Structures are given as structure tokens and as C-alpha cells.
Amino acid sequence: MNAASPIPSVLTARPADETPPPQQLQWQPKISSLLTRVFAVALVGAGMAAILAAWQLPPFSTSVVKTDNAYVRGRTTVISPQVTGYIKEIPVKDYAGIRQGDVLMRIDDRVYRAQVAAARADLEIATSNLANNDQAIAQRQLDITTAEAKISSANAQLVKAEADFKRASQLAGQGSGSVSAEDATRAARGVAVAVVQEAAAGRGSAEQALKAASVNEKALEADVESARAKLQLAEINLGYTVVSAPEDGKLSDVSAKQGQYVTNGSQLMFLVPKPRWVIANFKEAQSAAIRPGQRAWFFVDALAGARFDGTVEDISPAAGSEFSVLRTDNAIGNFTKIPQRIAVRIQIDDNQRGLERLGPGMSVEANVDTDSHSTP
Fold it and tell me: Which residues form the CusB-like beta-barrel domain (predicted)?
């Protein structure tokens, strides 16, 4: 029995020029291209966030408004002499702390002391003249009294002389008296009349003298007042030779020098008193929600960004452009809208560290919390 022979497998050979079928390829992104896209998206998002934050739009809106157009303000007092002369002494130095009443400079006062002495002498002369005139008035009043007494006595003598003459005339007419007696009484009556007239004239003269003295009294009183005013003015000018600090503060550069000739009104130094405040110029849109009494704070550039707290004290009634010398006229030509600035005054809280270093003119960055308490 013959075993079954295996069936040989048939192998077909592939022609040499036949290429294998192409395999299906899948797309694979490059790593560098993916990172670029992610970075671009992140950059766009960051830019949009920056824009929203800059314009304080949601979700970056805040109740705090700020500006770097702000400065520390304070009063600056000009120290000037009120009289002319040579500077005798300057006992202060640059940037010195000053208390009210401290002597800042002394001017040579010899001329002004002489003026005081001369004015005092003139006052004494005027006072003496007035006193002499008062005595003259009293004497004229006494002369009037004496003249009136003489008039009274002369009138009495005249009455007696009239009576004697009348009696002598009657006796002479009756033949009982002599003619010589009548003549004697007539003469006596004439003398009495003359005495009365003389006394009346004396009284008139005394009254005229009293009137003249009274008129002179007014002029002499005016002379006394004028001399007294001149003495007071001389004493004031003498006091002006010592220039003192009007209040507490700190000095600027002391430009005056010993021996320098100065005139009244010369600017020799500046005194900066202690009161300070901040003027912050906010844009119109920012100032809409600002009210007095709201909490504020600021950072000072000159003090390495030191922070100080304060309170909104008041708001300017108009934009800063309204107070400029040259105001803008938009009635003609092309118009470009420019946001205006509204000045806000910030009162600085007391008892803060470093307050003594704040100086007028320092630049600050001011902030106001518009959601804080405000004064109605």
C-alpha cells in the first residue's frame, strides 16, 4: 500500500519590478509648532488682561483710583526786611529748624535809635508847648475874671457918681449948693464912666486872647499827636531791625550775608511752615466718585516710595485749565478732546513716621478708595 504523497505547496514568486503596496500614513504635529501656538494664545490673553486692567474693566475693576500727577504742597513764607540798612548779624544757617520768634537776622540799628531819640525830643517839645498854651488859657480866663470884677467896681462907682451929680445939680438949682460942687460931681461922673469903659475894654481884650489861645490849643494838640505818631513809627522801624520767624518751620538757603546792604522787601530766605497737604490731579472720569472724607494714601518718590495715609479734604470747583493764564479756545479750528484734570486736596494724617521729611514740591503717587466713608 502506497502512502499518500504530500501535496506540494505552490509558491508564486513576485516579480522583481513589482513594488509593495503603500502603507497609510498618520499626521503627527511637530512639538515646536504646538509650543508656538500655545505661546501666541497666552500672549494674546495677557495683552487683553493688561488692557482690561489698565482701563479697570471687569473683572479687573476696582474702587481705588490713583494718579502720579500729584505733589506735596505747603506754604512758603518769604523772609524780607521791612527797613533798609546793613546786616549786622545772621544767627541761623541753611535748612535750620526754626521756632516762632527766633531771631533770623539783625540790621544795624544806630540810625534808627537816633531817629527814636529825635522823635522823642520832638514829642517833649510839642508837649511843652501845649502845656504853656494851657497856662496861657488859664491866664486869659483869669484876666477875664479880673476885668469883670473891675467892670462891677466901675459900675458901682458910676452909680455913686451919677447920684452925687444929680444931688449936686438939684442943690445948685435950688441955690443951696455951689456951682463948684456940681462941677466936681460932674467930673467924678465922667471919670466913673471912663473907668467902666476901660474895664469893659480890658474884658474884651482878655476874651480875644482866650479865643486865640483856644484856637492855638487845637494846633498844639495836633502837633503832640503828630510827634507821638512819629515816635511810634520810629520805634516800629527800630523793632524791624530785628527780623524774627513769624511761625515754626524750616529755613531754605540763607542767601543773606553779614555786611550786605538790604532794602525793605528784599528776598533773603524762605521759611517753610510745618503744615503739609497733597494736591492730586485726577482725570475727569476718575474724579466722578471722589468725595470729601474718603480714605486716601500716597507714596513719595523722594522717600523711596514711603507710604503716608490721609483723607480727601476737598475737591477743586473747576478743572485746572480754567485757572491757567492762557485758556484754550475750542470754538475754532479742529477739535481734539483732551481729558481734563480735577485737583483733589488730601489732608495728611498726623503722627506718622517720616512726616517731618515731607517737603513742598515732592512728587507722589496718590490713591483714593472711592468705596470708603465719605462726608456728605
Answer: 277-319
Claim to verify: residue 280 and residue 360 sit in the same structural domain: yes
Report if residue 357 sits inside a domain. yes
Decide if 21 is inside a domain.
Answer: no
pLDDT tens per residue, range 46-60:
888 777 666 665 565
21: three-class secondary structure by DSSP: coil
Q: In the structure grid, which three cell numbers stand for residue 20, read together?
A: 509593495
Each residue's pLDDT tens digit, 206-253: 777 777 777 778 888 899 999 999 999 999 999 999 999 999 999 989
Of 211, 93, 209, 200, which Cα lies nearest the Cα of 151?
200
Q: Which residues constitute the domain of residue 258?
A: 82-107+242-269
Residues 234 and 170 in one domain: yes
* Whether residue 365 sits in one domain with residue 291: yes
pTM for the complete prediction? 0.62
All 3 cell numbers of residue 174? Answer: 435950688
Rounded (10°) angle between helices 110-174 and 179-240? 170
Residue 57 has what DSSP assignment? -
Nearest Cα to Cα of residue 94 among 268, 276, 243, 263: 268
d(CA 42, CA 55): 20
Q: Are residues 195 and 100 in the same domain?
A: no
